Amino acid sequence: xxxxxVTVNGKSYTRDVEPRTLLVHFLREHLNLTGTHxxxxxxxxxxxxxxxxxKSAKSCTVLAVQADGxxxxxxxxxxxxxxxxxxxxxxxxxxxxxCGFCTPGMIMSAADLLAQNPNPSEEEIRHGLExxxxxxxxYENIVRAVRYAAEKMRAEQPA
Amino acid sequence: xxxxxxxxxxxxxxxxxxSLLQQYGDEAKILAGGHSLLPAMKLRxxxxxxxxxxxxxxxxxxxxxxxxxxxxxxxTWATLxxxxxxxSACGVLPEAVAMIGDIQVRNRGTIGGSLAHADxxxxxxxxxxxxxxxxxxxxxxxxxxIAAGDFFTDMLSTALxxxxxxxxVILPTLGKGEGAAYVKFPHPASGYxxxxxxxYVKMDGGSVSTCRVAVxxxxxxxxxxxxxxxxxxxxxxxxxxxxNAGAGLDILGDIHAGEEYRRAMVAVYAKRALQxxxxxxxx
Lengths: 159, 283
Ligand SMILES: Cc1cc2nc3c(=O)[nH]c(=O)nc-3n(C[C@H](O)[C@H](O)[C@H](O)COP(=O)(O)OP(=O)(O)OC[C@H]3O[C@@H](n4cnc5c(N)ncnc54)[C@H](O)[C@@H]3O)c2cc1C
Ligand code: FES
Ligand code: FES
Description:
The complex is a heterodimer of chains A (about 160) and B (about 280). Chain A has about 160 residues and is an alpha+beta fold. Helix content of chain A is about 35%, strand content about 15%. Chain A has helices spanning about 25-30, 85-95, 105-115, 120-130, 140-155; strands at about 1-10, 10-15, 50, 55-60, 70-75. A five-stranded mixed sheet of chain A has the order 2-1-5-3-4, with helices on both faces. In chain A, α2 (about 85-95) packs across α5. The model of chain A has no long low-confidence stretch (mean pLDDT about 95). Chain B has a five-stranded antiparallel sheet. In chain B, strands 11-12-13-14 form a four-stranded antiparallel sheet, sandwiched between helices. Chain B has a three-stranded parallel sheet with strand order 1-3-2, with helices on one face. The longest helix of chain B is centred in the last third of the chain and has 24 residues, at about 260-280. Chain B is globular, with a radius of gyration of 19 Å.
C-alpha cells in the first residue's frame, strides 16, 4: 500500500492505495465519485476523462499513485454553487446525450478544448473530441452543445 | 481491467532510475506516459513486477533548440505539438505529433516512450528515420548515441539494453533548401498509422542532393524506402520515384487493411509525402 494525497474538486483526500489502482477506480470506488465512467479496456472511449492539473486525461490509463500531489477535476466538480457549467447546460439544451454514458467524459474533454480554443469551428470540435466515443447520438448534437457552451462562455468573459 | 500487482518506484533523477533498473533487471519496466504500457498491463499482456515511474525526473523534460533540436525523452506530445520554436526549426515533428491519437493521449504520451516501445504503427519512428535523428541513452556504462537507422531492430524491439534509459532525441533544424513532411492514413478508431510516410529532401541548385523517406504502420517496424530515395537522387519526380514504393517490403496485413492494400497505400502516401517535402524545400 502507498499513501497518496490528491485534491479532487477542491477537496483534499489522503488514502492508502495499491500501486496498481487506476485513477478511475480510485475516484469511483475509494471516493464514491461515480460520475466518471469506464467504457472500455483499450484507452479509446474517453468515458473516464478527468482533468489532472488542468489537462484532460483518461483516468483509466493513469495510476492513482501518479496523481499523488495533483489536483483532479471530475464532472462532479464542474457546477458552481448549484449552477450548471455552460457545457452541462449546453448538453441539456441541445439534446447532446441519449443514454448519457459518454457524457461526463465528453464534457470534460470539451472543457479542455474550450480552455485551449474558446471559439472552435465545427471541425475543430470534432477533432478535439476524437478521444471520446458515443454509441447513441451520432455526435451532431454534441457538436451543437459544445458550440452553445463556447458562445455562452465567450459572452460571459468578453476578451 | 486491473493490472497485476507490482512494486512502484518514482525516482527523481536519472542516476536513481538507472540504479533501480540495474537492481531489478528484467523484472522492471520504465513507466513514461503509460499510454502503451498501462493498456498492455490492463490486458495482462505485460505484467512487470516493478514499475519505475520516470515522470518526476524534471531533467528529462523539455525542448532545447540550439544548432539542432534536443528533446528530453519525457517531453509530451502536447508540448511538442504546441511548441512555437519547433514549428519553425523542425516543423515536420509537430505536424506528425498533432496526428497522434487524441488530446488525452497527447497530454500524457511521450516521445521517448513511443520510440522505446517501437510500436509498428507509431508515427514518430518514421519521422526520426527520415530526419536521420539520434537517440541518446544512458546505462550503467555511461551515455551513448544511437543513430535512428540502427535503433529499430524488429517489431516492438530496439537496440536499447534493458538497463538503459532513453534520455533524449536529437533532430536536425531544417534550413533553406530543406523540406520535410509527414502524411498518414490513420486507423479510424485509434488514430495509429495504417500507413504513415515521412520524407526529407535537400535541394542544391535545383536538384535534390539528399533524400530520405521512411514508412511506418505497413510492416513489423518503421523502415527507410531506399529504392525511392535512389530514384529521387537519380532525378525522378515524386510520382515516378514512388510508383513501386511498396514492392519488396515486409508488409503485415490485418482485419483493418490487408497486405495488398497496405502495399498500394505505401506508394500513395510516399508520393504525397515526397511531393510535400519537395514543395517545402523549394518554397
Ligand atoms: C487510444 C490511443 C491512441 C494512440 N494513437 C497513437 C497514434 O496515433 N500514433 C502513435 O504514434 N501512438 C499512438 N498511441 C500511443 C501513444 O503515443 C503512447 O503514449 C506512446 O506510444 C508510448 O509512450 P508513453 O510515454 O506513453 O510510454 P509508456 O507506455 O510509458 O512506455 C512504453 C514502453 O517504453 C518503455 N519506456 C518508456 N520510456 C522509456 C525511456 N525513456 N527509456 C527506456 N524505455 C522507456 C516502457 O518501459 C514501455 O515498455 C496511442 C495510444 C492510445 C492509448
Ligand atoms: S474507460 Fe475507455 S478510455 Fe478510459
Ligand atoms: S449518449 Fe449514449 S454513449 Fe453517448
